[in-house]
Amino acid sequence: MTEAWKQWRGQELALTLAVAVIIAVLSLMPMLRLLQEIVLPGGTFSLSAIQVGLAKSSTWTATLNTLVVGLGGTLLAVVGGTLIALVVALTDLRGRNAFVLCFVMPLMIAPQVTALAWLQLFGPASPFLKLLGIAPPLGTPNPLYSPQGIIILLGIQYAPLVFLLVRAGLRKLPRELVEAARAGGAGWATVLRTIILPLMTPSIVAAAALAFVSCVGNFGIPAFLGIPANYLVLPTLIYQRLAGAGPAVLSEVAFLSVLIGIIAMAGIIAQEVMSRRRDYRISSTSLPADPYRLGRYRLPVEIAMWAIVLGMLVLPLFGLLLTSLVPGYGIPVTAETATLENFRFILFEHGGARRAFVNSLMLSLGAAIFAVLAALPIAYMVAWGKQKWVRYVNLMIELPYALPGVVLAIASLLLFLRPMPITGIHIYNTIWIILYAYLARFLVLALRPTVSGYHQVDRALEEAAQVGGAGLFMRMRTIIFPLVAPAAMAGGLLIFMTALSELTVSALLWSSGAETIGVVMFSFEQGGDSKYAAALSLIVVSITFGLMLATNLFARHLPSGVLPWRD
Predict the structure, then answer these.
(1) Does residue 1 carry a pLDDT above 50?
(2) CA-CA distance, 503 to 111, in Å (whole number)?
(3) DSSP letters along 42-102, please?
(4) Where is 30: in which H helix or E strand?
């Protein structure tokens, strides 16, 4: 056994142990602690938490409501996202990149911002409706405070998610099959019905499962639209229970969070069952099919597509802007009443908002940096590892993100309710517990593009360095990491944008002095200060949109698909 071989084996073992520790701390420990609280509270087997949860009518009501809005939002997202993907991917639509950027934007905006924007577009106090002179009388209920309103906004929020997944599948559509059908005299409607949609079934079903999980676990939209109407889903029921009773109900809310996880996993299992019923494999790969020429219909189709962007993105944000400029509730926007006082108050006077900006920036930046550094070695094992257990590494890292954020939040509370063994470190009710949850939840967002980066690297470079005597860490530091760093950094940027105004996790974990932007935004709206919430939301949207535009400057150096808004 040579000295070089011993060194290589030692470095490989060290890498494996580091990855195992990350997975254990961020994925396994919180999930196991959650299950322990339900069936082994205090170390003694008991089903009391389950019995208490099932005995309450509010549990069944919230579960039914969760299924209603989850299925409704998923159906709307799948239909809308699939239709848009077919038009964008299969036709000669002009301005495709600009359209995709705008259409994907709602997915990059926090759900509570989406809800707030739409709330300010309708209702009796809407500055937009007052500007048009069609505002209903004060006291008229906002139509979005309803299950239908929640379903519509969930569909709008996650239609871009479905669009991205279906479009990715359409890029792999075999050109020869489409051209053979066209040569045989089949029209595009027949080709779509008999070839394209059947081949896209796995992508559509996978998109539906992911959209369902996202709808079920969404907190921001049901909180803004459902709580005022006393229409509770499981995430908002958990929030109200914790807000009302604190740690005393942790066992009960642990059961409720697992119930959300079961519903989400049921959607994923249903997707697996449906995908296995038929063989959708494509025996060959080729260039994408030539786009369908719309001819004289191109301009009307383009107008319709941009009208969708106008309705989904521009009008709600315009309503948000008008609300941020009014000095008080119900006051119309005019040259005399418009003011920037709300922005000044948010940025310079409100202590909680200032702390929230600092906290969210530090949390987002910290989570992004850690995720990038951790994703580089983990992706090395996932992309190039040959051991049988490597496939489970990716699965374990996906788990905290695949499950609704409420599940991870409750698991984190339980895990750190008491000081950590040996060290005695106590992070419960501190900002560090939020950072932990962000690290666990968003690590996969950096891992996915980094794995794609590894797949595009010619491994011959590393093998040549290995033959030359370079150790594993030397090869990773000098050859591999510089090549995949752009993809990893793009993943870090996605984490930063996602975590900046996150609410689902932080709403359950924040404490005094550890507020985040999402929490302050929610508090403003709950307290009736919509003008401040609107101003704060616009600042966050501006930051997000600016970062999306900035990343386009180095998009050419990234693997395809790393930036979802790039065509």
Answers:
(1) no
(2) 8
(3) GGS---HHHHHHHH-HHHHHHHHHHHHHHHHHHHHHHHHHHHHHHHHHHB--SSHHHHHHH
(4) helix 29-39
What does the pLDDT average to over 274-284?
Answer: 58
- Are 221 and 176 in contact by the 8 Å Cβ rule? The answer is no
Beta-carbon contacts of 476 under 8 Å, excluding residues fewer than 6 positions away, are 376, 377, 380
Place of tokens 């709008």: 156
Token readout for 384 is 């190039």
Q: Is 233 within 8 Å of 69 (Cβ atoms)?
A: yes
Cα(123)–Cα(429) distance, rounded to whole angstroms? 37
Whether this model's pTM surpasses 0.85: yes
The β-bridge partners of 91 are: 292
Q: Residue 97: beta bridge partners? A: none
476 token code pair:
């990773």
> How far apart, in whole angstroms, are the C-alpha atoms of residue 461 and residue 484?
13
- Are the C-beta atoms of residues 438 and 502 closer than 8 Å to each other? yes
Separation between Cα atoms, residue 250 and residue 34, nearest integer Å? 10
Q: pLDDT for 449-502, tens place per residue?
A: 888 778 777 777 767 776 766 666 777 777 778 878 878 888 888 899 889 989
With a pLDDT cut of 70, the percent of the chain lying above it is 91
3-state helix, strand, coil in the chain (%, to 5): 75, 0, 25
Domains of the chain plus CATH, in order, are: 1-40+358-515 (1.10.3720.10), 57-338 (1.10.3720.10)
In which residue are the tokens 């077919």 written? 86
C-alpha closest to that of 379 among 441, 440, 436, 445: 445
Query: Residue holding tokens 């693997």?
Result: 559
Mean pLDDT for all residues in the chain: 85
DSSP 8-state secondary structure symbol assigned to residue 279: -
Distance separating the N- and C-terminal Cα atoms of the chain: 51
Q: Hey, how many other C-beta atoms are within 10 angstroms of the C-beta on 461?
A: 13
pLDDT at position 147 is: 95
